[in-house]
Design goal:
single chain; 2 domains; 56% helix; Rossmann fold; Arc Repressor Mutant, subunit A
């Protein structure tokens, strides 16, 4: 960590403040450096770390930095937008996510909203707009450009209708299949699921195949999206 970051942290601690921890994800180093410099000037914000979208340790970095807000450029992600955002959110469920992007494709904004992104800010807007969005999501608000909201809401309503129709499919899952599905929703992989449920990796693969068949999907991403849309959740603890 640069020396000036240490000084900033010390100053905040001395003022008994608990700044919002930020993680910046962008492939353009100059942009993240300029943005970090601007945001670090605010006493209630602290840039805990920066990395690129292509970093192979992206999710591990998110776990390690423990950000309250993740600011990410999704333009380089292409068709992997939903998958990458889903992994980030699974790695750090407590974090709110803001897309700061040069991408103007409304279908990508819909994907981001489906994944749970809290705000979408265009890069050509001023830094003050990003700061306003940051403070908004910290308060629990969501922000998307007005010209995108109509399409986003239409697609989310359609998702809700489909979820109502899919409740029957989710109801067909066995108790063990639901446990595997819930683990997948938490971003866990086959080996982790096997260890957690005390079953073999081959058994996990069998359950996943059965889940795909019952939900009529072809990927983990589709299965997780359907389960979330259908409101699948763990039963209350009996403890």
């Amino acid at each position: 960590m640069p020396a000036h970051d240490d000084l900033a942290v010390t100053a905040r601690q001395g003022l008994h403040m608990s700044p919002t921890r930020l993680m910046l994800v962008d492939d353009h180093l100059m942009i993240t450096e300029a943005l970090a410099s601007r945001l670090s000037a605010a006493m209630d914000l602290w840039v805990a770390g920066r990395c690129t979208t292509a970093d192979p340790n992206l999710t591990d970095i998110a776990r390690g930095l423990r950000p309250d807000v993740i600011v990410i450029e999704i333009a380089p992600l292409g068709h992997e937008i939903a998958e990458v955002l889903g992994k980030l959110m699974a790695a750090r469920p407590q974090a709110r996510v803001i897309v700061l992007t040069s991408d103007h494709d409304v279908t990508h904004a819909v994907e981001a909203a489906r994944a749970g992104v809290a705000a979408w800010v265009a890069k050509e807007q001023c830094a003050a707009e990003l700061e306003a969005a940051l403070r908004g999501v910290i308060r629990g608000e969501s922000r998307f450009p007005p010209h995108m909201l109509g399409e986003i809401l239409r697609e989310l309503r359609a998702d809700a209708r489909r979820a109502g129709q899919q409740d029957g499919a989710l109801g067909m899952l066995s108790k063990r299949e639901r446990e595997v599905m819930l683990a997948m929703m938490d971003g866990k992989r086959g080996g982790q699921i096997a260890a957690e449920l005390t079953i073999t990796a081959d058994t996990v693969r069998t359950h996943i195949r059965n889940i795909f068949a019952k939900l009529d999907v072809h990927s983990r991403l589709e299965a997780v999206r359907m389960a979330r849309a259908g409101g699948l959740s763990a039963p209350p603890s009996s403890a």
